[in-house]
Amino acid sequence: MILVVDIGNTNFTFGVYEKKELRALFRMMSQSPRTSDEYGINLLALLRANDIDKDEIDGVIISSVVPQVMHAFVSSIIKYLGKRPYIVGPGIKTGIRITTENPKEIGPDLIVDAVAGYEIYGGPVMVIDFGTATTYEIINEKGEFFTGVISPGIRISARALWEDTAKLPEIEIRKPASILAKETVSSMQAGLMYGQIGQTRYIIDRMREESGLKNMKVIATGGLGRMLVDDIPEIDEYDPCLTLEGLRILYEKNCRTKPKESAYED
Predict the structure, then answer these.
(1) Of 156, 139, 129, nearest in space to 238 by CA
(2) What CATH architecture is 2-87?
(3) Do 97-243 and 2-87 fall under one CATH topology?
(4) Residue ranges per structural domain of the chain
(5) 224 with 130: CB under 8 angstroms?
(6) C-alpha to C-alpha distance for 222 and 220, rounded to whole angstroms
(7) Confidence class of residue 258 from pLDDT cuts 50, 70 and 90?
């Protein structure tokens, strides 16, 4: 079995795969700093709670957009699982070509989603990830990742509303039944959710028009996506495990070579 780890701005998302079957899925907050021992002990507890023996883990792969946690977390994997992990970044085999102006600027989360979108759904394909940020990327029929858009996610926009305005309250992020809100909380929810829906539909249409790939598939992922996709007919499929699948695919592409020693190790 392999452990795949997606470290986002809000959560660590863990998946345990036995071949191509996702055996376990669990999360840990990424905003609280921890030591390597704390990460290791929490990880072992989560594995046990999901009936996974740590000795069954044959390999680990990590994608992270939070560099400040990586030293402690990578150390915890080495110390508690006895494995040196693969880390998504320069030098890892992906099976796609990044043809943007500065490929080194492309985040590992975008690379993982691009690999999954292309390998599972073929090209041309657009992948939308509704996370802390909302990201859009296109991979053409040749497997070239040539363009992407990054916009504030719903949580970022919500936090800006209640932190930067004196009288607006902190609210639950949910979609109200109607955009015709009649009080403050549902007014904020309507603006956030229907605003994201409108933005997403416009960006899809504009990227289709300017790329000339009007018939490309559109795949969505990310935890907040499930609240939105029913109102976005341009999205062909919502795949909540797309990022984990991308990590599994990347592990399979790289497992014949040993993981390189990383700058995050002691």
Answers:
(1) 129
(2) 2-Layer Sandwich (3.30)
(3) yes
(4) 2-87, 97-243
(5) yes
(6) 7
(7) confident
Sequence-separated (6 or more) residues with CB below 8 Å from residue 18:
1
Burial 137-164 (b: 16+ CB within 10 A, else e): bbbbeebbbbbbeeeebbbebbeebeee
Distance (Å, whole) CA 250 – CA 261: 17
Structure tokens that stand for 236 in this block = 């062909």
List pLDDT tens digits, range 56-115. 999 999 999 999 999 999 999 999 999 999 999 988 999 999 999 998 889 999 999 999
Q: Find the mean pLDDT for residues 191-204.
A: 97
Distance separating alpha carbons of residues 123 and 246, to the nearest angstrom: 15
Angle value at C-alpha 130, between 263 and 97, nearest 5 degrees: 55
- The C-alpha atoms of residue 127 and residue 251 are separated, in whole angstroms, by 20
Tell me if residue 97 falls in helix, strand or coil: strand
DSSP state, residue 227: G
Crossing angle for the helix pair 36-49 and 70-81, nearest 10 degrees?
A: 60
Contacts of 177 (CB under 8 A, 6+ apart): none
What's the average model confidence in pLDDT over 132-157? Answer: 95
Token pair in block for residue 241: 């495990």
Q: What stretch of H or E contains 64?
A: strand 59-64
Q: Domain 97-243 classified CATH 3.30.420.40?
A: yes
pLDDT of residue 259: 87
Q: Could you list the active site residues?
A: 109
Confidence of residue 266 (pLDDT cuts 50, 70, 90): low
CA 32 to chain centre: 19
